[in-house]
Amino acid sequence: MSETIQADGLIKQARQLVEDYVRAEVVDIEEPVTGVTALAVVKGNDVVPLSPHVFDEWRDQPRERKGQARLLSIDSLIAHVNRFKDDGSAIFADNSREAPSITAVIDYHPEGRSDHVSPRFGRHRSVFDFPLSDEWKAWKEKDGEPMSMVDFAAFLENRIIDVLYIIPGEDSLPEDVQRLIDTLGGGDMVASPNKLMELSRGLQINENAVVQEAVNLASGEGVVRFQSEHTDAHGAPVKVPSLFLIGIPVFANDALYRIAARLRYRKNGGRLSFWFELWRTDRTFDHAFNMAVERVRAETELPVFMGKPEA
After folding, report:
1. Are residues 109 and 23 in the same domain?
2. 138 lies in the same domain as 264
3. Whole-model pTM above 0.85?
4. How far is 231 from 249, CA to CA, in rounded Å?
5. What would the pLDDT profile of 255-294 be if each residue is shown by its tens digit?
6. Is it the case that residue 151 has pLDDT exceeding 70?
């Protein structure tokens, strides 16, 4: 009996020693450089810091402002930034042709060397993704793409509302566009919407005809003659203007830009392919983007950096 009691006592002592060794204990630990303290759970040889988010449900307010607001207009971006900005806030502008955007980092690092100022997390942000206009996307999608006569005619008819009617000598055009028109022979070389509709109908009529002749005249226009597949008679000539002008916004609900489009065609066997080439759309895009960025800079009074902020 006494041996059994002694054995039970030893078992209890051993169990107590094990429990004392593995019992979890909450302690304060200190970061040696900054002196910041945090709670940690010590269990045996393991030390596991407690995340401060463990206590979020019991807080009366968040520990910090963070999150990313995605705004739908420049006006909203400016208003949101002005609501929360401070002396360290900064703007980043990404002029990507496919996905332009502006990002404001509200809690950005203050200006100066890191040993003189306290860095910040940069987790509170305002973001505006520029919406490219439907008109811009439609014309850019077909820019430089050869099309059959019927496809080219259908595209012109669908987008004819974007084509501008220019009165030579009276309408004021951007300097570089006017220089291009003068180089090609003057305002008479610019096709009106009516002229393009005539071209569209002429191409549709001759959809199944064979191209007999395609020449460029000294006037700057091209003349295309068709031969009917059913008779030996020559088809009526179709005049192809050298260029036309469109008025479209780069970004949705933004100002219109006048852009020159040069008409091109090529004979391939007995058929023609048509396309257009938009002139200097890179400059047009840059101007629209820079105007928007300059407005944000002026109305928020914050520094603007071209690029993306640190992740």
Report:
1. no
2. yes
3. no
4. 47
5. 999 999 988 877 676 667 888 999 999 999 999 999 999 9
6. yes
The whole-number pLDDT of residue 30 equals 78
Distance of CA 172 to the CA centre of its chain: 30
Report which of 166, 241, 163, 229 is spatially closest to residue 202, judged by C-alpha positions. Answer: 241
Q: Could you tell me if residue 230 is inside a domain?
A: yes
Residue 61 near residue 274 (C-beta atoms within 8 A)? no
H-helix or E-strand containing 226? strand 222-227
* 84: CATH: 3.30.720
The Cα–Cα gap between 125 and 81 comes to 9
| 6, HSE (Cβ side, Cα atoms, 13 Å) | 3
Helix (H) or strand (E) holding 12: helix 2-22
- Max intra-chain CA distance, the chain: 129
Q: DSSP letter at 163?
A: B
Residue 215 pLDDT > 80: no
Tokens found for residue 98: 């496919």
The 10s digit of each residue's pLDDT in 70-106 is 999 999 999 999 999 999 999 999 999 999 999 999 9
Number of domains in the chain: 3
Q: Give the strand order in the sheet containing 210-216.
A: 210-216, 222-227, 238-240
Q: In whole angstroms, what separates CA 86 from the centre of its chain?
A: 27
Same domain, 159 and 272: yes
Nearest Cα residue to 160 out of 152, 149, 168: 152
**20: its two tokens:** 């004392």
